[in-house]
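During the no-cost extension, the postdoctoral fellow (Dr. R.K.) reprocessed legacy sequence entries with the updated structure-token encoder. One reprocessed record is reproduced below for audit purposes.
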Amino acid sequence: MDNKLFDSELKVMGVLWREGEATAKHISDVLAEEVGWNMNTTYTLIKRCIKKGAIERLEPSFRCRPLVAKEEVQAAETDELVGKLFDGSADKLFASLLGRKKLSAEQIVRLKEIVGELE
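Re-encoded structure tokens follow.
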């Protein structure tokens, strides 16, 4: 993928990540319902994603297939966030997240498991 995806483009990708291959019309219908976008807006965003290498256009029927995995985009966004706001320190990000929200016992157990897997 050539460039960072913006929030609006991530909405388009979100439909494809949930549903797999879909027509541009279907993506437009979903986003019209979810966020109120018109067809022209959605098609413009799909074309931007194609230009960036995040979506492949297939014929017939202007079908779209994601070329980038959600996890890949999440990793890139996380790296950018850590670098930009937390001086490259993942532990500062983690501390910030934990300090802002009361976690359930289940969430705490899961976080301990995740940390244990990293050791």
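The mean pLDDT is 92. The beta strands are 22-23, 55-58, 63-66. The remaining legacy entries will be reprocessed before the final report is submitted.
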